Amino acid sequence: MKVLVVGANGQIGKHLVSFIQDTDNLEAKAMIRKQEQASFFEDLGAETAIVDLEGGIDTIANAAEGVDAIVFTAGSGPHTGKDKTIMIDLDGAVKTIEAAKAAGVKRFIMISSFDTTREAIQGAPSSFAPYVAAKHYADEWLKRTDLDYTIIHPGALTNDEGKGQVKAAVEVDRGEVPREDVARVIVAALENDSTVGKEFQLVTGTTPVKDAIDSI
């Protein structure tokens, strides 16, 4: 299975491409914004596609030609304004969903925010509410398609070394999770068709990743 990783140069994305390249049955295609980002992925043996997520749907669809799954890990980051939140976390996600449909790619994994419910938007601090709203509507757009989607809602992301042990369920208590373990969970979800049509929250726990995903 060839997997297009959108936002591959991000911290989750880099872990994900590395883990995919270490498997026997998956291969990564890293979608990146700049040529100078390519060497990291080429050294892993991964194909690259240079695409600006703020460009047109057709450019993303071209990158998705010939792949079997798309993982959306892109994000505007904590230090950008509301404009980038809209353009990347909402519009970029929706364009990637539409590109998947145009390219005939059915499998789609979305990395969302921990809680994207309407209540979460209303209860979020004013500085964070636009991000939650963007994720909410991107998730809703995906769920209204006929794509084979999985939506992952990670807790507070850390750069700690992953333990390979998590807690995953429709609802879990708030907590942290290393980006490295989020990447491991994505790989497990790609390899497990029982996650299709499902969404779940994810934090550090005591259950090995594969077992946690098998139980979803």
From TrEMBL:
The record's Pfam families line, in alphabetical order, gives: NAD_binding_10
InterPro entries (alphabetical): NAD(P)-bd_dom, NAD(P)-bd_dom_sf
Residue ranges constituting the NAD(P)-binding domain according to the UniProt record? 7-192
Q: What is this protein called?
A: NAD(P)H-binding
